[in-house]
């Protein structure tokens, strides 16, 4: 059971792929959010149950009906939110595996009868892999993600790549405005990249913040950008990310989507610890001011604070300079 969000679902896919690779006969049911389902809906040999949280109690009743008269060998309770915990009560399972004590929140521990092993300073993806460990699933030789798309979306992505040539994706909008870098600075980086002869495209979801951020970036660039914001399905977006030379993004879903298809990511972080939530294969490319922000606010370094402690403030991302990002971008465009 992992309902949301896109980035966390990407991490969960790695764990599910491991189970499918090592236990080929395993029967898997995934309870997932409505939007997130659109990303993983073509994964093979998985029964999906969509949990639409906007329906409130009706969503729980729908889940209850979907699993009626079933008893699962194990329920992986991979979300600590109280809404998910409460909904999980309608699922009968011999083992109800939850997070360890340190990672349990919102009474999560009350709903589990078994816990994953405690791990200090673990990335979210590693935390999800601990569920496979708890089941006894052997480790895979390599970390892989299996997120199929339709042949039509594959062809669409290849066509865009053919038109665009070598390109960098900027996916500038996180779910909260405070986690976003300044549009003017994104514009400066976009100009820097395009001056080197590499195209830049903007991507994002259909939300108001995504649209506003993209428009502000375009208003500040010297060179026109191709803008796909709000114009793609999740699978089309995945294909744009797959064919990209590089992705630049804050702590947002497309950064983790890019990781699933092997595209390098430069992540921009101030509020959350990138060691925990950064693009898993590209933590060495992160531009982060988190360490200084959290120590200034808490009076302690991140090592001496609860894992997952967040820095607060609406202006923290301003501490990331254009020059800091240019240093990470430069090797990809020279």
TrEMBL record:
Parts forming coiled coils: none
SUPFAM superfamilies, alphabetized: UDP-Glycosyltransferase/glycogen phosphorylase
InterPro entries to which the protein is assigned, alphabetical: Glyco_trans_9, LPS_LOS_Heptosyltrfase
Keywords carried by this UniProt record: Glycosyltransferase, Transferase
Pfam families, per the entry: Glyco_transf_9
Keyword presence, Transferase: yes
Keyword Glycosyltransferase assigned: yes
Name used for this protein in its record: ADP-heptose--LPS heptosyltransferase I
Annotated source species: Alteromonas gracilis
């Amino acid at each position: 059971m992992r309902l949301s969000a896109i980035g966390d679902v990407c991490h969960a896919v790695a764990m599910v792929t491991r189970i499918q690779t090592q236990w080929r006969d395993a029967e898997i049911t995934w309870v997932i959010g409505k939007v997130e389902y659109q990303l993983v809906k073509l994964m093979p040999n998985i029964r999906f149950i969509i949990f639409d949280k906007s329906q409130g109690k009706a969503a729980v009743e729908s889940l209850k009906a979907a699993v009626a008269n079933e008893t699962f060998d194990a329920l992986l309770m991979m979300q600590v939110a109280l809404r998910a915990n409460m909904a999980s009560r309608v699922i009968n399972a011999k083992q109800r595996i939850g997070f360890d004590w340190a990672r349990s929140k919102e009474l999560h521990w009350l709903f589990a009868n078994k816990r994953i092993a405690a791990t200090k300073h673990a990335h979210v993806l590693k935390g999800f892999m601990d569920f496979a460990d708890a089941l006894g699933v052997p480790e895979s030789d390599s970390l892989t993600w299996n997120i199929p798309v339709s042949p039509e979306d594959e062809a669409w992505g290849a066509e865009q790549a053919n038109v665009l040539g070598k390109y960098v994706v900027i996916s500038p909008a996180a779910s909260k405005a405070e986690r976003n870098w300044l549009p003017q600075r994104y514009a400066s980086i976009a100009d820097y990249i395009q001056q080197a002869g590499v195209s830049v495209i903007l991507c994002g979801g259909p939300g108001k913040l995504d649209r506003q951020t993209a428009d502000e970036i375009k208003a500040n660039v010297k060179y026109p950008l191709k803008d796909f914001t709000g114009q793609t399905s999740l699978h089309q977006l995945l294909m744009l990310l797959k064919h990209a030379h590089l992705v630049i993004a804050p702590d947002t879903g497309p950064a983790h989507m890019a990781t699933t298809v092997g595209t390098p990511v430069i992540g921009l972080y101030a509020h959350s610890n990138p060691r925990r939530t950064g693009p898993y294969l590209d933590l060495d490319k992160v531009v982060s001011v988190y360490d200084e922000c959290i120590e200034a606010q808490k009076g302690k370094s991140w090592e001496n604070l609860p894992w997952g402690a967040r820095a607060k403030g609406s202006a923290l991302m301003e501490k990331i300079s254009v020059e800091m990002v240019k240093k990470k971008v430069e090797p990809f465009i020279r």
